[in-house]
Please model this.
Amino acid sequence: MRLSRFYQIQKTLLQYGLDELIPPQWQPWYARLARCSLFWLRNQYPDQAIGVRLRLALQSLGPVWVKFGQMLSTRRDLFPAHLVDELAKLQDKVPAFCGETAQAMIEKALELDNIEQLFVDFEQTPLASASIAQVHTAKLKLASGELADVVIKVIRPDIRKQIEADLALMDTLADAARRFLPDGKRLRPREVVQEYKKTILDELDLQREAANAIQLRRNFADSDSLYIPFIYTEHSRSNVMVMERIYGIPVSDIAALEAQNTDMELLAKRGVEVFFTQVFRDSFFHADMHPGNIFVSYETPHNPKYIGIDCGIVGTLNPEDKRYLAENFVAFFNRDYRKVAQLHVDSGWVPANTKVEEFESAIRTVCEPIFQKPLAEISFGHVLLNLFSTAQRFNMQVQPQLVLLQKTLLYVEGLGRQLYPQLDLWKTAKPFLENWMQQQVGLPAIWRQLKDNFPFWAEKLPQMPTLLHQYLEQGPAQQRLLVQQLKQLAQQQRKTRQQIVAATFAAASIISASIVFCFANPWLAVPLVATGVGFTLKAWLT
Model:
């Protein structure tokens, strides 16, 4: 299965002529010879532009590859415009599956004899179609008798099998990379693939997506920055989800945003603020923020609000990682590279024997040139490449739990670059993070912890005298019992060691007796056999 899928991928890439994307200087003679030998896999679309061929190839390979193309489409600083413009079509213009099939799936999932039992004006032609699901518009019949504008999201039929085949192949390639690449163990490719596998399989469960959307909506209930549509949970299933229909401008439609006089600078700043709020305030962030999932409300363009959909992939951070990340960001913004280096050592992201002074110097070399510059003048692609080289030099391990966060940061930067290239990312984020750090340390944090723990201690306080009396009464007896158990364990270990030694000598004696019996005087083997029997009895009786 994995070999056949690998061949299918190679066949697709070559039949779309994507080997043209590899610069000639990166193609050694043996690679060109191998390509020529595959004469039956010629470019079948020579009249199509390379960007169109790339998009079509990713579409034909399936959702795992479509999502890869979606991520690339946000990186206008790294790839030519003609490629990015085509890849952007993967965000919501993937070829749809049959509308009648979608209707039948909805009726089966919601146990309807006919779709008109619950919906009015169901549109079989999908409003949008993505790599894993597509959405259809309708009006939902409410219990009050009113009609609500909704969209119905339906998972593509039989998609899990293809996704699992690709993931199995990725796991095989990751294992090969771990074994054979010089940096294989440090990069932890299998852990990264497992993390990606979890997220993409979670995305196939629309009930999980509904729960994520409900959580995000609650987190931003009174926000002027982000709106999450309402989910009709009573009409949602694992492969069908019904939610409020939203009306907004795609965040990538810069011309439409400018036509209604949207405050682009404020919009870009709010994008950064929304991201950091989700990560550091809530520890729960939308991790699929490509432009196809983000809209801007038509209302109050002078005070613009984002609308977020498709919450199938979310990320979470534990308190330790969140604290280290925040301290790293603040240290970066303050150009305190010594602290950045020390934090990496303390967190275990680099080996404990790393020389902090050398690591500090390497980080300064990478990061100092990018400060106090607008996004238009910063190439984060080059920064990431330099950081990768630094990581390689200091054996920095990849942190799989941070992969989603890193991907989301790329999306946020890509959006910021499109909306307002002059945005000072550091100036926007620094006050937020400093305020968050102040809330985590010092008197406010102590008071908050005391307040949060007060109900627990108020419940336990009346029991404290009884618990203290029981400890003082039972403590000595428990200590004596523990000492006795330790003595028994030590005695058992001594017996085990004696048995192992006796068994070893018994085996050696019998083997020696066998050799003597075969190659020397057989009578000389008798005392060796007797010795072996004696050690066997000792091992058995010990």
About this structure: The CA atoms of residues 52 and 200 lie 25 Å apart. The radius of gyration is 32 Å.
